[in-house]
Design goal:
Layout: E1 3-11, H1 16-26, E2 31-38, E3 42-49, H2 52-61, E4 65-77, H3 82-92, E5 97-102, E6 110-117, H4 120-129, E7 133-135, H5 137-142
Antiparallel strand pairs: 1-3, 1-4, 2-3, 4-6, 4-7, 5-6
Length: about 140
């Protein structure tokens, strides 16, 4: 049930990210979640999109270095402490969280979070057992 994340290595220069988003837009790929970390020379752009195959193909053709990674998407209540509750499930299950970021979602009652963890299947099982709804590729397309 893991969802696919694109990790794109981007030069740290003016217009680099907009070039990527423009390419995706021209191929009708919609960004559902994103995160960017930067260093002096390059950035690491992480994306969840509605059409991973098209995004990977078109960006690769443009010369970008891309890695596809499985991540966990989880729906949590949009209230104080709800993220802590979800992270506590992982802590109690002994699952290391490597990073997280949020989806761009149109909802007033829920937040959607992307989790990169050591063990996807174990994390998904722990979260589902605790009553959390996992985000699927089909859910991503609906956002």
């Amino acid at each position: 049930m893991a969802i696919k994340q694109l990790t794109i290595f981007v030069q740290n220069r003016k217009g680099a990210v907009s070039s990527i988003t423009d390419t995706l837009a021209k191929h009708d790929v919609n960004i559902r979640a994103l995160s960017i970390a930067e260093t002096e020379d390059f950035g690491i752009l992480r994306l969840i999109v509605n059409d991973e195959a098209t995004a990977e193909k078109t960006l690769s053709e443009e010369g970008y270095l891309i890695k596809v990674t499985d991540v966990v998407g989880v729906k949590i209540g949009d209230a104080p402490g709800k993220l802590t509750t979800a992270l506590g499930v992982l802590d109690r299950a002994g699952i290391n969280l490597e990073y997280l970021y949020a989806f761009m979602a149109r909802t007033e009652k829920h937040a959607y979070v992307v989790l990169r963890v050591e063990d996807i299947q174990e994390a998904e099982a722990a979260l589902e057992h605790a009553g959390f709804h996992l985000v699927t590729d089909a859910d991503v397309c609906k956002l």
